[in-house]
């Protein structure tokens, strides 16, 4: 009877069912624990099986692997990894990664499009959008890139040079004003701003307003911060990738507007003043044999890919260019001597391509500065199939393979006195530096090598040249000056403190 059963203590305290559920919970607990242990053991087995004899940790930290190290990378940590072997292994969030530090393996990865393709950093597809041209591979990539090469012809560079020259002067004069109190200034953020404004004006001219350059410049830092080798996997609010995506949306909206305005300006018969104009004009040229229609969005994505590829690398290259010149007064004196000579002592004379052609020493300084402190030390690739990279090792399909450039660029056999800035090594055609061009990997190698080598070196050259004639600068050395911080690219930890003052005219 229900009433009697319900009053029975044996039923109100259902001991047998409690026992049953306790043992059920225990079974559940033991089963879950057993599955977890099995999964963790499997994780280690998979790692060891992929790593085989390569140098690297014998065990991987469960689940996260070396995530903590990838959040705060250090040059010392990377160098330890590179020096541990020509190929070495790590794992982050179960992504198996093979680092390649020798010239031979680094070049092999970048020149094996059938086995590996660039994956940039983990967040790149979310930030750049998956349909950005930089993710194309094979013939599609070659064809698209062929069209974009037209944006870096000598004629186009001539247009960009004028823009770079005037913006650089304007910004350097601002730096001088900011440093008028004689106190050293960290040039890291001013350099990033100089570079962003230069890029946006070269790419979009006056097709974006000043407030857009300011907004993109301010927000771009959120994108830089998301450029970690491997990010937290979900782009949820509060994560770096989420913030970077919001910043990209703002930038793309302005860039689409610029593309639209450029098309209108060119249709009205105006002269090209920026990269977008040059592009629109090429597409309208009856002699142009390639594809003619690009939507505003597509053009904006290309410009955004250029911003993405250039902002951190160029800022790093510029900052170390300044630091190197300040640290090597003899080299700075030679740069100045060349400047005064080619400019005929007229320091206000706008720079032209013909003038740059007569400045071999300046070019050698830029090349050497980028070698000593390469802004991009490595470029992550992903294997699309098992990649027999060495006689005794095959990188499994779906792994990250990361060619690193640092050891190639600091190979003492090719670059004697490799940590010292020696521009002269580039002036002797028979030098080991010039006879081993394969070691100079500052701009990568293979089908995805930097599309803008001339552009990038020209921009750094213009900035250093102009600074050398309009200002005196002295490096205020701090304990952090020669320590490197890695925020996507390399920077001096103290942001490069310079004491700047106007230089008397010759
Ligand atoms: C000092 C400055 C720069 C350095 C050190 C640098 C370095 C590099 C490197 C190492 C790569 C990857 C190469 C590879 O995977 O083999 C690359 C690719 C690229 N760079 Fe640069 N870069 C610089 C400036 C620029 C600038 C100013 C732009 C644009 C105006 C640019 C646009 C690109 C693009 C679009 C790619 C991808 C090319 C492709 O996938 O076909 N870079 N760069």
TrEMBL record:
Keywords: Heme, Iron, Membrane, Metal-binding, Monooxygenase, Oxidoreductase, Transmembrane, Transmembrane helix. The chain crosses the membrane at residues 20-42, 85-106. InterPro entries: Cyt_P450, Cyt_P450_CS, Cyt_P450_E_grp-IV, Cyt_P450_sf. Its cofactor is heme. GO terms for biological process: sterol metabolic process. SUPFAM superfamilies: Cytochrome P450. Its EC number is 1.14.19.41. Heme binds at residue 450. One of its GO terms (molecular function) is iron ion binding. Pfam families: p450 (PF00067). CDD domains: CYP61_CYP710 (cd11082). Belongs to the cytochrome P450 family. This is sterol 22-desaturase.
């Amino acid at each position: 009877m229900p009433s009697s059963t319900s009053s029975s203590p044996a039923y109100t305290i259902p001991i047998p069912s409690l026992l049953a559920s306790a043992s059920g919970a225990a079974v559940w607990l033991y089963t879950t624990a057993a599955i977890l242990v099995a999964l963790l053991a499997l994780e280690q087995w998979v790692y060891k099986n992929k790593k085989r004899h390569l140098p690297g940790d014998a065990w991987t930290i469960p689940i996260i692997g070396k995530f903590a190290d990838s959040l705060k990378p250090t040059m010392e940590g990377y160098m330890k990894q590179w020096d541990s072997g020509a190929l070495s292994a790590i794992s982050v969030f179960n992504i198996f990664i093979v680092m390649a530090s020798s010239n031979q393996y680094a070049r092999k990865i970048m020149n094996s499009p059938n086995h590996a393709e660039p994956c940039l950093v983990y967040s790149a597809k979310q930030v750049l959008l998956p349909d950005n041209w930089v993710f194309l591979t094979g013939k599609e990539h070659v064809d698209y890139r062929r069209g974009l090469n037209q944006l870096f012809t000598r004629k186009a560079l001539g247009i960009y040079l004028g823009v770079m020259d005037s913006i650089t002067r304007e910004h350097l004069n601002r730096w001088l004003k900011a440093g008028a109190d004689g106190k050293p200034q960290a040039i890291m953020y001013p350099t990033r701003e100089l570079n962003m404004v230069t890029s946006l004006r070269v790419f979009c001219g006056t097709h974006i307003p000043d407030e857009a350059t300011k907004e993109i410049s301010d927000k771009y830092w959120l994108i830089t911060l998301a450029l970690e080798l491997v990010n937290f996997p979900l782009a949820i609010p509060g994560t770096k990738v989420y913030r970077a995506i919001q910043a990209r949306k703002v930038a793309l909206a302005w860039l689409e507007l610029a593309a639209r305005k450029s098309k209108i300006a060119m249709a009205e018969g105006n002269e090209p003043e920026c990269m977008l104009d040059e592009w629109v004009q090429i597409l309208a040229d009856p002699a142009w044999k390639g594809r003619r229609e690009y939507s505003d969005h597509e053009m904006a994505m290309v410009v955004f890919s250029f911003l993405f590829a250039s902002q951190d690398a160029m800022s790093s290259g510029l900052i170390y260019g300044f630091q190197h010149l300040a640290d090597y007064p003899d080299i700075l004196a030679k740069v100045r001597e060349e400047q005064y000579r080619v400019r005929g002592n007229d320091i206000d004379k706008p720079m032209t391509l013909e003038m740059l052609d007569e400045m071999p020493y300046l070019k050698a300084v830029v090349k050497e500065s980028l070698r000593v402190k390469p802004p991009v030390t490595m470029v992550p690739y992903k294997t699309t199939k098992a990649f027999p990279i060495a006689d005794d090792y095959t990188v499994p399909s779906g792994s990250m393979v990361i060619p690193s450039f640092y050891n190639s660029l600091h190979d003492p056999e090719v670059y004697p006195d490799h940590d010292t800035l020696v521009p002269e090594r580039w002036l002797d055609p028979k030098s080991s530096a010039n006879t081993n061009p394969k070691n100079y990997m500052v701009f990568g190698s293979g089908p995805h090598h930097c599309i803008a080598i001339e552009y990038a070196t020209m921009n750094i050259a213009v900035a250093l040249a102009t600074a050398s004639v309009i200002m005196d600068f002295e490096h205020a050395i701090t304990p952090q000056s020669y320590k490197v911080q890695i925020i996507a690219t390399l920077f001096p930890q103290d942001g490069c403190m310079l004491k700047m003052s106007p230089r008397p005219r010759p």
